[in-house]
Write a sequence for this structure.
């Protein structure tokens, strides 16, 4: 098999890469990363010195592809399927990439800050940083709510790159700062994402690991 994905079932960015693979039925070998294992961590650092996940390896082309957004672009280019994740139209393409960045930078980043703080020792908690992260997340969700009321998907005319980013971002945002009645359109969007077979499969595979998610 040409493609191998190094990932973890709880990793939001791993979800972002899994969704397009499942969406198009792209064949790949999944390799679960345990970065607490010194040997596995060393091997992964040799693969990608930044040590982040996911990473896609393509044996057929001799490529190592890190970063979920780049992985999706790579799949679009070299392993296309029924779903094209970034529209061909230039205007739709840049808008799709803008929403991809929005979900990663303005929702996921703050969610990860909050989750990361939960596993710190009590005397090393970042009270100021968490207050700022929650304020930024609140502002991002308010903007998202206005936009979600206008559309079904965020990737041009259909499901694509931005929606692959949105699925883990909004799912985990709801875990750390639950959506309220003020987020009805966003909740509806999340339910559409969860009903998508590719994301439903991703969530199902993550279920055995959810007990590891740090509670607030």
């Amino acid at each position: 098999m040409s493609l191998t994905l190094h990932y973890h079932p709880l990793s939001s960015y791993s979800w972002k890469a899994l969704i397009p693979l499942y969406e198009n039925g792209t064949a790949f070998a999944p390799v679960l990363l345990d970065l607490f294992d010194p040997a596995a961590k060393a091997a992964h650092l040799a693969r990608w010195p930044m040590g982040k996940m996911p990473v896609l390896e393509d044996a057929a082309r001799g490529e190592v592809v890190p970063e979920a957004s780049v992985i999706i672009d790579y799949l679009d280019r070299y392993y296309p399927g029924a779903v094209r994740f970034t529209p061909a139209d230039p205007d739709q393409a840049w808008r799709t990439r803008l929403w991809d960045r929005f979900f990663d930078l303005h929702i996921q980043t703050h969610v990860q800050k909050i989750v990361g703080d939960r596993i710190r020792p009590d005397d090393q908690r970042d009270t100021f940083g968490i207050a700022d992260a929650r304020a930024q997340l609140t502002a991002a969700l308010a903007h998202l709510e206005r936009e979600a009321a206008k559309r079904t998907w965020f990737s041009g005319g259909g499901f694509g790159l931005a929606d692959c980013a949105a699925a883990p971002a909004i799912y985990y945002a709801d875990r750390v700062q639950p959506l309220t009645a003020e987020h009805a359109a966003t909740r509806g969007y999340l339910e559409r994402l969860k009903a998508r077979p590719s994301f439903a499969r991703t969530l199902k595979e993550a279920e055995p690991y959810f007990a590891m998610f740090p509670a607030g």
Residues 90-206 form a domain with the Glutathione S-transferase Yfyf (Class Pi); Chain A, domain 2 fold (CATH 1.20.1050.10). The chain has a mean pLDDT of 97. The radius of gyration is 17 Å.
